[in-house]
Amino acid sequence: MLIHPWDAAHDDAEWKAWLSGHDFGQLIAGGAGRDLPIVNPAHFIYDGDRTILLHLARSNPVWPLLEEHPRALLAVTDDHTYIRSGWNTPADPPHGVPTSYYASVQLECDVRLIDDAREKAALLDRQLAHFEPGSGRLAVSATGAPDKRLLPAIRGVELTVTGVRAKFKFGGNKTSGDRSRIDAELERRDGPRDARARAQLARRER
C-alpha cells in the first residue's frame, strides 16, 4: 500500500483508536509454492493494543498455510468514498482527476492457533460479549452439551501485531480551502459513506 507522508497516521494512537471502532476485516495468509494467498473475511475483537482474536471453521483451507508459516496480514478498510474529478481539480474540470478517500490499516501479525477446548470457549465468550452484549446466551462450555460437540468444528486464532501500515487518505495534500469545499460537496451528495468520510476529513484537519 502506497502511503504518502500526508496520508500517514500521525502516531500509533491514531490507528489504534480507529481500529478499536472496527471489528471486521480480511485475514490474508500466503504459503510456499502458492500462486495466490487465501483471503478470509472475518469478524474479530481487538484489545486496543497488539492482540486480535478471531475464529474460523475447521474446514477452512487456510490452516495448512498458517501451520506452515504462522504469519498473516489483517487488512481493515472503511470510511471510503469517491471524490469526483471536478471536486478534486476545480480549476480545470474538463481535465479533472478524481480520487478516493479512505482509511486503511494493515496489520502484520504472528499467528498462534488455538485448539484447546477451554481456550476456544473463552475466546467465543469474549466475542459474544463484544458482538451481542446482554443477549442472554449462556457462557460457552468446553464440557457440556451442546457446545462440547460444536467446538471441534472451529479453530481459534490469536494474532500478535508486529508491524503496521496505516493510511488516512482524506485530502492531506490539499489546502484548507480545498478540503472545506470538498466537505461541502460530500455533504450535498450525502452518499452511503460520505458522512463518515467527512468526519475523517474534519478530524484530520485539526
TrEMBL record:
<dbReference type="InterPro" id="IPR007396">
    <property type="entry name" value="TR_PAI2-type"/>
</dbReference>
<dbReference type="Pfam" id="PF04299">
    <property type="entry name" value="FMN_bind_2"/>
</dbReference>
<dbReference type="InterPro" id="IPR012349">
    <property type="entry name" value="Split_barrel_FMN-bd"/>
</dbReference>
<protein>
    <submittedName>
        <fullName>Transcriptional regulator</fullName>
    </submittedName>
</protein>
<feature type="region of interest" description="Disordered">
    <location>
        <begin position="172"/>
        <end position="206"/>
    </location>
</feature>
<feature type="compositionally biased region" description="Basic and acidic residues">
    <location>
        <begin position="176"/>
        <end position="206"/>
    </location>
</feature>
